[in-house]
Amino acid sequence: MTAPGLLIVISGPSGTGKGTICQSLLKRRPDIFLSVSATTRSPRAGEIDGVHYHFRDRETFEEMIARDEFFEWAQVYDNYYGTPKGPVNTALAEGKDVLLEIDVQGALKIKKKAPDGIYIFVVPPSLDALRARITGRGTDSVEVINKRMNKAMEELAYLHEYDYIVINDILEEAVHRAESIIMAEQSRTGRFRIINDGRSDRPLVAAR
Ligand code: ADP
Ligand code: 5GP
User: Fold this and answer.
1) Kind and range of the H or E run holding 80
2) Distance (Å) from CA 132 to ligand 1 centroid
């Protein structure tokens, strides 16, 4: 039987650069399975249904909640966001490492269900940088930006619920650090078994 993959949760305040880090990380590590969330928010320019999100109306999303189809779901600002359970469980069962990019309340809910996951908190270098990023993204009104800034400070209080921090100042360094964390976790001795088959030309260890 294949050992289950790692569940990697990348979280942090909105606009901190989680999505940007995950996209770069996945280019370097195409072996990692990215969970595509469902949301009731409208697609932004360039976003594709089924790639960036599964865009659903409120009624459909609520039916999915009633059918218990989510690993976790949360209301983030004025919309629902949720992690569909099926694809995540299938990928983990196949031994694939799975990446979730979700907000702080969602990450804390997942941690209760999956305490063995790896929880990474992405922090902006400063509040000014965070505001500049959210503003620069050009997708949110001033009111929404202010809401997100206030929420960021509240969310930072949960830092110590996480295993690792990545300060996203220089993007390449942040991606490198996130990848290093994942590689260290993949290298834990507990994930390996010794092969003792008397063959001197074969690997000595294999993933459990
Ligand atoms: P999140 O997924 O956390 O909401 P995004 O990935 O959408 O955040 O990033 C918000 C904005 O900040 C985007 O415009 C992105 O290009 C920019 N950004 C991300 N990381 C950096 C960085 N290290 N330096 C400067 N800008 C960044
Ligand atoms: P955005 O609208 O900017 O794409 O995302 C808003 C916030 O929702 C981000 O912090 C993002 O990480 C979070 N988010 C995206 N998908 C999910 C999800 O499935 N569950 C939860 N809890 N949050 C999510």
Assistant:
1) strand 79-84
2) 9
Mean pLDDT of 53-78: 95
CA-closest residue to ligand 2 atom 17: 102
Domains of the chain, earliest start first: 1-31+97-208 (3.40.50.300), 33-95 (3.30.63.10)
Eight-state DSSP code of residue 94: T
Query: Could you please report the per-residue DSSP string of 156-182?
Result: HTTGGGSSEEEE-SSHHHHHHHHHHHH
Is the CB of 21 within 6 Å of ligand 2? no
What's the predicted TM-score (pTM) here? 0.94
Nearest ligand, CA of residue 47?
A: 2
At residue 1, the pLDDT reads: 61
Say which residues have a Cβ less than 8 Å from residue 92's Cβ, sequence separation at least 6. Answer: 4, 5, 7, 98
Report residue 119 as tokens: 């929880």
